[in-house]
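User: Second chain of the day. Same drill as before.
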Amino acid sequence: MNTSADLLKELKIDRKAPAGREPPPSRRGLWMGLGVLVVLLLLAGGAWALFGGKPPVEVRTAPVVAITAGGSSASVLDASGYVVARRMATVSAKITGKVREVKIEEGMRVEEGQVMATLDPIDADAARDLADSQVSAARSQVENVSAQLKRAEADAVRLQTLVDQQLVSRSQYDEAVALRDGLRAQLQTAQRNVKVASNNLSISDLGVDNTIVRAPFGGVVTAKAAQPGEIVSPLATGGFTRTGIGTIVDMESLEVEVEVGEAYIGRVQPKMPVEIVLNAYPDWKIPGEVIAIIPTADRGKATVKVRVAMKVKDPRIVPEMGVRVSFLEEAKPAQAQQPQGVRVPGGALVEREGATVAFVVGEENRVAVQPVKTGIAMGDDRQVLSGLTAGDTVVLDPPPALKDGDKVTLAGAQAE
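Assistant: Same format as last time:
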């Protein structure tokens, strides 16, 4: 058998060969070169099949968190609702009139008794002037009758003396007494008329005061309904008549109303702790508690309303905001609590071949299928009693094609 040195010698060019004549090729060297080429191709194909045949799967991951003693209580029920105000009023004038001035704007803070708007007071002022004149006339009548009564009393006293001396007839004395008594009655009537006129003046003063619209309580203006020149009325009298000046909300009276299904209302109790999350601020968890369960159900929706108090007052919380409420079980004392297992996002747990499993990301970003034993629901998360440990990284919403040992890459890693 030829050695490698012999093969190399055969491949050399014979410089001594006659010009124009090529040396005959070696068949054995040609076949060995083809064999080496085939081996290299087979090795390259195997490496591609082993390392580059299947691209990594793009997934989202989340850490596994330990459940600590004294932590947040587990949620026993979730419900959706809205922020509402227990103290809210659409302020209107007590009388029908034309708006002269509006002194409020949306978002403005008003105090109790603050002037919100004024109506045209021409009619009310005229009615008050008339009532004041009637009071003056009644008082003048009293003074007139009083003067006549004083004279009649003096005449009656004088005629009584003359009757006793038999200088005048008894009939003249009786007429004087009747006149005196009549004037006394007229004086009483005039005095009552003064009182009636004074009461009428007080009513007219109220009419003037009714042209001024004041805030019934302190709060924030959420709506401005009228403009100067418009007609407002406490009763809707036509399409061009406003029924209110503006709406005031007492921000200190904000609470949450949620509707709980009839089948789950038994889980809710008064004074039960809750966790409130505003749709506008999903990362902000507000503590609260159940105020009351409204003792009636909605027949059409099969729900029961529950009032929930918020223990935090903040300007970011406004009426009609959407919220999500998690009703929590009562927290146990730290000494009695025995936290077990870990907390895992619910999307990381899937059913594979009849068992609940999670895909744990290991070295070189390869996943391993890990069977788990689950516990109670904890909001959007789930308690895992065995199979996972705190600090593990699990795949969220694993695709059905993901298998044990597959290589993964984090979503968004290529874009970064």
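The mean pLDDT is 82.

User: Great, on to the next one.
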